Amino acid sequence: MKVGIIGAGFVGSTTAYTLVLKALANEIVLVDLNEAKAEAEALDVLHAAALTSPCKVYFGGYENLQDANIVVITVDAQKSLNGDRLELLDSNKAIMKKIVPEIVKYAPNSIIVIATNPVDIITKITLEMSQFPKERVIGSGTVLDTARFRAILAEELKVAPHSIHAYVMGEHGNSSLPSWSTATVGGEKILSYAKRIGKPISEERQKEIEAEVIDSGFKIYRGKKATYYGIAASLTKIIEAIVKNQKADLTVSTLQDDVYGVKNICLSLPTIIDKTGAHQSLLPDLSSEEAWALKNSAQVMEKYSK
User: Which of 162, 165, 172, 279 is catalytic?
Assistant: First the structure.
């Protein structure tokens, strides 16, 4: 399995490292305009691979993406964030105009996995520019937001995160929807479970948790000027589902034909991921309030996709 990673910054290099730790690739190439940085990161990961799993790790140009099964895009304009990922659209759209044609040229059969923000809009742009089948253009979407939601609920209820089934849907951003009506633990509605064990989650506390989910990335950014462990783990989770043909259910961002009447936009819904890409997005049975919120998120994506 050959993986190309465009961008050797914190996210790209951490993703390469995580892929090596999980033995998901036997060849990784890092592509970056800063060749010295890409070479250094590749060497560092290569040395880690000697202690974990055999993997050829190196830096190169776009031509080295040839025969890549998966290409991960992690680059961004490195503009300071002030609370909305949509601020990055214009600068990162310009970058994609340079990157996507190179992927099409050298890795026309690859699956593209995107972390660049605003990820939903950038996913749509990449799909349009590449003309790849929609199943082969996948945004990291709300995979990380969903993990954050589950982590907070796990701490709140003292239950392992893997035992909690809860989703964040819509935009990877301020209009995202953490869904309470579909959240369960052991098949029981999570709000019912919380009440039954004497730890009820009030509406006020629900709002606090929602805000924490949405603001977590910015809180981390304010503290250390970057976020990379969580998103690298999210990208690795998507790649693992592809490599192992897991048919896993992940909240990735893909092209949606129709979300409550909003057509042809990219946003996150639970979606099945297998060796050929993203298939069969699912629309959970939401409450009327949540359905409205998801439609609103879709409309935000529609506005910025024009």
Answer: 172
